[in-house]
Structure to design on (167 residues):
């Protein structure tokens, strides 16, 4: 059978040498979006950035991700700038013990990252720098715990959208 790739400088039956130079491809996030769609890409990005598979989660230093059941993060995203971040998270053996220790010890945490999937294709990460965890309390059912992030030095809000942002 004849070879399909011929080059004028080669003898009959020889194929054209392939170039070692690779074409620059599209951005990996766009390629992923084309492959699995907006919603799927948002979920993958949430996992890639260390947020686990929760739609709303928190990472405290190297601890986490911890599922957020309730919080006032919408006030922060909506630029209402409250004084503190109040969080209710799912109780977990390791995370609960560490949160309680941090609250009682009044030690500063370098970074507390709250992540949230907003709409179908927007991923929001709010980072509190050099913060204290205060007022840790587990509920009576033993399923959740509430605590407060306060006395932080800075807050950074980062939005990542795939395509046009949708509510």
């Amino acid at each position: 059978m004849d070879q399909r790739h011929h080059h004028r400088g080669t003898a009959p039956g020889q194929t054209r040498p392939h170039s070692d130079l690779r074409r620059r491809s599209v951005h990996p996030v766009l390629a992923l979006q084309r492959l699995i769609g907006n919603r799927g890409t948002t979920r993958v990005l949430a996992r890639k950035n260390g947020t686990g598979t929760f739609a709303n989660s928190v990472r405290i230093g190297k601890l986490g991700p911890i599922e957020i059941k309730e919080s006032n993060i919408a006030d922060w995203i909506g630029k209402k700038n409250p004084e503190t971040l109040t969080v209710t998270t799912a109780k977990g053996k390791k995370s609960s013990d560490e949160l309680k220790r941090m609250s009682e010890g009044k030690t500063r945490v370098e970074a507390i990252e709250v992540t949230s999937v907003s709409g179908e294709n927007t991923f929001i990460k709010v980072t509190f720098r050099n913060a204290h965890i205060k007022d840790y309390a587990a509920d009576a059912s033993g399923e959740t715990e509430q605590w407060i992030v306060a006395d932080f030095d800075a807050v950074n809000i980062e939005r990542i959208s795939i395509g046009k942002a949708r509510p």
